[in-house]
Write a structure and sequence with these properties.
The chain has 645 residues and is an alpha+beta fold. Among the domains are: 86-195, Orthogonal Bundle (Butyryl-Coa Dehydrogenase, subunit A, domain 1), CATH 1.10.540; 200-301, Beta Barrel (Butyryl-CoA Dehydrogenase, subunit A, domain 2), CATH 2.40.110; 316-444, Butyryl-CoA Dehydrogenase, subunit A, domain 3, CATH 1.20.140.10. Helices cover 56% and strands 9% of the residues. Helix 15 crosses helix 18 (521-545). It has helices at residues 13-26, 31-49, 61-67, 86-105, 117-126, 144-157, 159-171, 174-180, 183-195, 308-314, 316-344, 356-385, 390-416, 426-435, 444-474, 484-489, 491-506, 521-545, 553-577, 582-600, 606-619, 641-644, and strands at 200-203, 219-223, 226-237, 244-251, 254-261, 270-273, 285-296, 346-347, 350-351. It has 22 helices and 9 strands.
């Protein structure tokens, strides 16, 4: 199903943000900050306009769960919306076989510990790099749900290979071309990306432009049939000479995206800036220096009523879901590394697998895996349906990256003890890669603020902007509701807000999920109720801080996190309840129970601790589904277990 429809002309930033700019100035913002924040807001509005109204943020599951009177049950768990591609499924099986073969033969990495070119070529022969590209351009036409679930599977074999598929297909040149490319650009460029002749990257970040993309300094100047690009990019994953990249730059002062084919070797116009980077150690991640680098003008992507920031923002959501999918696979590898070690390692004559602490860690890790599976399938399904999915994909990214960090340090590392830091150990060799996703696709807390902003944007426009505009029109800078004149001036917008607030407070309808397993439906109903009740607190926070809300980052982050957690509980409960495997259902229920206790400030009960340790003990003898592709890792520095006992 196509996610895009030709939108009506979007209002210009000047038309839409005059009042917002004045409000920011009244809130103490500088002219420069107002200008830059306005550019980001305009880009967000332009991305929204790409989607039909029913698929925009105000009609997304999370937004409706908080603000609507009727809870959108059918948008939190649904069957697959598109039939998976059989051609893609065959490619996926062949790609797993390729990855297994190279891992077992020790031929995955070159002398610099990077993925070897023959591995990338072997994957290309399976159709790996064209999974998300349609057959009309030589690709395999996988649904995004199919692709995302496959990334989890590939990550159990090698997370870097899974990550490169995501970079190429989600945030590299593929998605911008599929979404914004014209017929000629797609015809010329997509077949080469599908075949793997050209791998891709996306050059967005700069030394001065990370979370603040309005600070872009790279520029492109028209010169005949070409653009001359000059500037510096930083932290560009999957970039090497000979590859095809999307370059975000400024053309005539506006952000734009050019699809650039890099030469096969470095030149005076194009050079890589190499640096030591602990994360992404098996991929090529470098800076790029452009000096009047020529790119054909015909490779300029056009976003109708938008600009380069519109294009840049569009592809990020797919990358966020892919990150969560990768985390689900990586944590499976951690679990399957913990269990044999815990059966082998003995203390005081007993395997540590018999100890409650280790059993709890295994059970808790299973819950994190099931939650990431749930978020991956849910968000990918929404994207396949045609939703923008901004808020939902942010939740998946934040939870997936934080879950992987917690699992790596608190569960995996602590169980393996000092051996965790040996060369050749899953943790010791990959610790930076395990932690870095907290930064990828947007740092977690910053994304949480963006989530909160998306949540309150429409409510603010409906109820708070009319109050502000009325005050502005009346010349009232310091309103006082005890002043009858002020109260009379504000009578209409205050009445509209009061009607909404009291209507929300009196609304008692709750969704019912009693067709779920008995252990899971209470969690689904509680979390849905939490989301419905959150509207009052969110609105009160907006009312309290008013124009200073943007500066109350800690309050926004805290409230945002609680709402995100409730969504995770709901999605995990619904997903686990639909699974036939009892271990998945149990792991999902325990994860929901633990997160609910955190939200309500309760300590873990004895019943919870007993249940999670029982699950961990069960996993010692029965693998969690989705671990069959994992190759067993050797126990490092083993000892004579019989003598030790």
């Amino acid at each position: 199903m196509s996610t895009l429809q030709k939108p009506p002309r979007a209002a210009s930033p000047a038309e839409r943000s005059t009042f917002a700019a004045e409000a920011l100035k009244l809130g103490g913002k500088s002219e420069e900050e107002v200008r830059r924040m306005g550019a980001v807001d305009a880009a967000d509005d332009q991305v929204e306009a790409l989607y039909a109204a029913r698929y925009q943020t105000v009609n997304s599951p999370v937004h409706r769960a908080v603000w609507d009177d009727q809870f959108p049950v059918d948008l939190f768990h649904f069957d697959s919306v598109a039939s998976p591609s059989e051609c893609a499924a065959q490619t996926m099986d062949e790609a797993i076989h390729v990855a297994h073969r190279h891992v077992q033969l020790g031929t995955l990495l070159d002398e610099h510990r990077k993925i070897r070119q023959p591995v990338l070529d072997d994957l290309a022969a399976t159709g790996y790099w064209g999974l998300l590209i349609g057959p009309e351009y030589g690709g395999r036409g996988a649904t995004f749900t199919q692709f995302a679930k496959f990334l989890t599977r590939m990550a159990t074999v090698d997370p870097t290979l899974a990550g490169l598929a995501s970079v190429h297909g989600c945030i590299g040149a593929v998605d911008p071309l599929l979404t914004f490319g014209n017929a000629d650009q797609k015809r010329r460029l997509l077949p080469r990306l599908a075949s793997g002749e050209k791998l891709s990257a996306f050059a967005l970040t700069e030394p001065c432009a990370g979370s603040d993309l309005t600070a872009l300094r790279t520029v492109a100047v028209r010169d005949g049939d070409d653009y001359l690009v000059t500037g510096e990019k930083l932290f560009i994953t999957n970039v090497l000479p000979g590859r095809m990249i999307g370059v975000v730059c400024r053309i005539d002062g506006r952000p734009a995206v050019l699809i650039a084919e890099l030469p096969d070797h470095e030149t005076d116009e194009f050079r890589l800036k190499r640096y030591s980077l602990y994360a992404l150690q098996h991929a090529h991640n470098y800076g790029i220096l452009f000096n009047n680098f020529r790119v054909p003008a015909e490779n300029l992507l056009e976003a109708e009523d938008g600009d380069g920031l519109t294009i840049a923002y569009h592809g990020l959501n797919r990358g966020r879901v892919a990150l969560c999918a990768n985390a689900a696979g990586t944590m499976r590898a951690m679990l399957m590394d913990i269990l044999p070690w815990a059966r082998f390692r003995r203390t005081y004559g007993e395997p540590i697998m018999n100890r409650e602490l280790v059993q709890r860690r295994a059970g808790e890790l299973a819950g994190l895996i099931v939650a990431c599976d749930a978020l991956t399938e849910w968000c990918a399904g929404l994207l396949d349906l045609g939703y923008r999915g901004e808020m939902e994909c942010v939740i998946a990214k934040i939870f997936g990256s934080e879950a992987q960090k917690h699992a790596a340090i608190e569960l995996h590392m602590k169980t393996h003890g000092g051996r965790s830091f040996l060369g050749g150990h899953l943790f010791g060799d990959n610790v930076h890669d395990l932690l870095a996703p907290c930064i990828y696709e947007g740092e977690g807390e910053m994304l949480g603020l963006a989530f909160f902003k998306s949540l309150v944007k429409d409510h603010g426009r409906r109820y708070f902007e009319p109050i502000g505009k009325t005050l502005q029109a009346a010349g009232i800078r310091r309103p006082n509701l005890a002043n009858p004149a002020h109260l009379w001036t504000l009578r209409e917008p205050l009445w509209n807000y009061s009607k909404w607030r009291f209507g929300k407070m009196l609304h008692t309808g709750r969704p019912r999920f009693q067709d779920l397993a008995p252990a899971l439906w209470p969690h689904a109903e509680w979390s849905a109720g939490f989301l419905q009740d959150a509207a009052i607190e969110v609105s009160a926070t907006m009312r309290k801080h008013q124009l200073k809300l943007a500066d109350r980052q800690c309050r926004m982050a805290e409230l945002s996190k609680r709402i995100q957690t409730a969504v995770v509980i709901l999605c995990t409960s619904l997903y686990a309840g639909s699974q036939s495997d009892e271990r998945i259902r149990k792991a999902g229920e325990l994860l929901a129970r633990r997160l609910t206790a955190e939200l309500t400030g309760r300590r873990p009960s004895d019943a919870y601790l007993r249940a999670v340790t029982e699950l961990g003990a069960e996993l010692a003898d029965h693998d969690l589904p989705g671990t069959s592709d994992i190759l067993e890792r050797p126990i490092l520095m083993p000892y004579d277990a019989e003598a030790a006992s």
